[in-house]
Amino acid sequence: MVAYLWLRFDPILYITFRKDWTPRYEFLSTIFGEEAAEKFLNHRVNLVKARNKILPPIILLTDVDKKITEFLKIKLGGKLNKNKRLVIIEQLIYWATDPEINCFNIDSYQSRSAIVDGLLNPIFQNSLTSEINCILNGLKKIVFSRVTYLGSKGEQLKKYKNPRVKPAL
Predict the structure, then answer these.
(1) What is the pTM of this model?
(2) Using alpha carbons only, what angle is made at residue 57 by residues 51 and 62, rounded to the nearest 5 degrees?
(3) Fewest beta carbons less than 10 Å away: which of 37, 140, 152, 164?
(4) Can you count the helices (H) and strands (E) in the chain?
(5) Which of 84, 102, 83 is nearest to 142 (CA)?
(6) What's the pLDDT tens digit per position in 98-124?
(7) Among candidates 53, 45, 11, which has minimal Cα distance to 25?
(8) What is the chain's percent helix, strand, coil content, to nearest 5?
(9) Cα-based angle 118, 58, 68 (whole degrees, multiple of 5)
């Protein structure tokens, strides 16, 4: 552990090797032996991969508001503008349904509720027919994409029969 800290934080070694671990490995192998260096630095690869992993974006309420105002500012002039509006709707739906974004951000429930509110209110009221269909399909995904104890779409998994309740005639 001390050797790792020395290799990692020593200013002279940092100036000499920068962030390249290949010469550090060679340096370590000449001092402690190749087998010990491989054993010691074996877990380093996993640490570097975990550190360099691209994290999903954190979607805040301000991001949702920016997309909604961007949608409302686009004029209905041509096909390019209609495509931009559809892309914004699809982006909002993606943000609400992507499991990585929602697992990573603790406050993602606020963003999802703001997205649903935005899709149902200002965007829905200022949309064309194709955009309305996209919104409704997206809301279906947002609302029914969570698996609950009742099932994936809110239905009960098996019919519950209460022996005390008689079927209606």
Answers:
(1) 0.62
(2) 145
(3) 164
(4) 10, 0
(5) 102
(6) 888 888 788 888 999 999 999 999 999
(7) 45
(8) 70, 0, 30
(9) 20
